[in-house]
Structure to design on (517 residues):
């Protein structure tokens, strides 16, 4: 089966494609300061197996700087022997780590967090180089991930079992034990956040991990693993492999050694990986696609909501699974909102992520640029109006204008497909009934947002909007202490919150008789 472009199986010929793209005048880009960091701040990308870094494998593909399209360095391709070594190391690491007391596991996690915080600025430069997001956004992502690790370190000491009341002479005990070696596969859009979600919970529960990062952003993953190596995590407990996604996924998921598969990425790939896991009788933890609705009710402050919407739409270049995508606006303020929204976004500064004035960086790869252009073309063919943006910026780097599309048909790609770019599709509705019908019409249901001054509407939204996370009158998303995940085709399970270790633990029922034999 061929996987989607967000989980590439072969090198992407990005320069060739870039040469074919239509050139547009340069807007808001005067320099590319990231070029000064390309040779000094980007580390060699290696695999980490059983406590040893491996760099001398055949390159699988090159990492590129989305701001310049320059090559940053090669990604090594894991051989079948490398994967076999990683599996054996992970199995041995699991037996060692599961026997490590929870408080000792927590100490190692806290030590790694201390290193993450100390190296935050250096790691943020790596993330911005390979992902393109602003340096401030990269720093914020790493800082937030420290919260994940600190929360899970505490969870390691709260993985309580249960004693069930029983008759005299009998004890009924419910133990919670680590499930086993974990396969963790993470995307390029939040290379630190997604990896931290999975590694933190797995290590806290007592599991070992084989991490497979996205080939576009392996440097961030290497920096994270290095923190755990330097914090004293025993060899084999955390391993990192790169290369051919088909080979890696089929080998690691099919092995009897691994016991859980966790993945963040596209719905199509998640379904494929879930199928592989099902054939091997393994549970999965899947955080997949989103297409978040934003329901804007009558009577709200249009200008205020427009400013908040612009900030939300451009966060991470719109390449976040919980990104606000479909703006479903009450008729009474629809035109005012579209004009205000477009006005704010038309002034946004789209620049190299290292530029201190940048409000949004480039798209992370040429595929996202291609998708953005196709989505705009599809919308305009169907009669939508471009209120602002709609085209590539310049002809070097994957820059795209923040875009507001008005009057988008409900069957248009911008309304039915996850954009993963800075395109906002706007439609008007007469009432909350219609808004909910539009919002719930897609097959993914991760995040949703609503702005209303009506308590009755707020209560109804909580009941009827089909999402896993609902934010009312703001665009915030869950931190470490609250669960994150979706419904319908968005995936299986939750990450974070009070039940964050559930996927990484199995329950054993023990019936103990105290009578003589």
């Amino acid at each position: 089966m061929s996987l989607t472009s967000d989980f590439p199986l072969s090198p992407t010929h990005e320069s060739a494609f870039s040469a074919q793209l239509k050139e547009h005048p340069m807007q808001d880009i005067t320099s590319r300061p990231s070029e000064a960091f390309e040779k000094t701040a980007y580390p060699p990308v290696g695999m980490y197996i059983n406590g040893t870094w491996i760099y001398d494998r055949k390159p699988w593909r090159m990492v590129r700087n989305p701001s310049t399209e320059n090559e940053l360095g090669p990604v090594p391709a894991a051989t079948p022997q490398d994967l076999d070594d990683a599996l054996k190391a992970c199995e041995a690491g699991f037996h060692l780590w599961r026997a490590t007391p929870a408080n000792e596991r927590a100490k190692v996690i806290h030590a790694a967090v201390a290193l993450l915080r100390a190296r935050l600025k250096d790691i943020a430069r790596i993330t911005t180089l390979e992902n393109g997001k602003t340096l401030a956004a990269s720093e914020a992502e790493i800082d937030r991930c420290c919260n994940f690790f600190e929360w899970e370190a505490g969870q390691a000491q709260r993985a309580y079992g249960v004693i069930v009341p029983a008759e005299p002479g009998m004890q009924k005990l419910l133990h919670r034990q680590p499930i086993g070696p974990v396969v963790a596969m993470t995307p390029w859009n939040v290379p630190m956040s997604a990896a931290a979600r999975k590694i933190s919970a797995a290590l806290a529960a007592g599991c070992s991990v084989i991490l497979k990062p996205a080939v576009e952003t392996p440097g961030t993953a290497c920096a994270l693993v290095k923190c755990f190596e330097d914090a004293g995590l025993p060899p084999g407990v955390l391993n990192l492999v790169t290369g051919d996604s088909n080979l890696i996924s089929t080998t690691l998921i099919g092995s009897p050694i691994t016991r859980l598969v966790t993945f963040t990425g596209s719905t199509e790939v998640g379904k494929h990986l879930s199928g592989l896991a099902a054939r091997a009788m393994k549970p999965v933890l899947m955080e997949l696609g989103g297409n978040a609705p934003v329901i804007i009710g009558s009577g709200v402050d249009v200008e205020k909501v427009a400013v908040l919407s612009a900030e939300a739409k451009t966060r991470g270049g719109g390449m976040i699974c919980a990104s606000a995508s479909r703006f479903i606006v009450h008729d009474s303020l629809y035109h005012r909102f579209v004009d205000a929204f477009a006005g704010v976004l038309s002034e946004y500064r789209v620049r190299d992520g290292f530029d201190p004035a940048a409000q949004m960086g480039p798209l992370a790869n040429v595929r996202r640029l291609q998708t953005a252009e196709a989505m705009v073309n599809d919308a305009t063919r169907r009669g939508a109006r471009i209120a602002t943006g709609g085209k590539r910026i310049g002809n070097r780097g994957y820059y795209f204008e923040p875009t507001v599309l008005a009057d988008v048909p409900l069957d248009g790609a911008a309304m039915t497909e996850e954009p993963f770019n800075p395109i906002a599709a706007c439609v008007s509705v007469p009432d909350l009934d219609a808004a909910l019908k539009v919002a719930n019409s897609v097959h993914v249901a991760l995040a949703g947002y609503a702005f209303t001054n009506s308590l009755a509407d707020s209560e109804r939204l909580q009941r009827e909007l089909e999402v896993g996370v609902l934010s009312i009158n703001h665009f915030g998303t869950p931190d470490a202490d609250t669960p994150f995940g979706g419904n319908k085709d968005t995936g299986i399970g939750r990450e974070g919150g009070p039940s964050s270790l559930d996927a990484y633990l199995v329950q054993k029922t023990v019936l103990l008789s105290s009578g003589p034999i």
Notes: The chain has two domains: 40-288+496-502, 292-481.
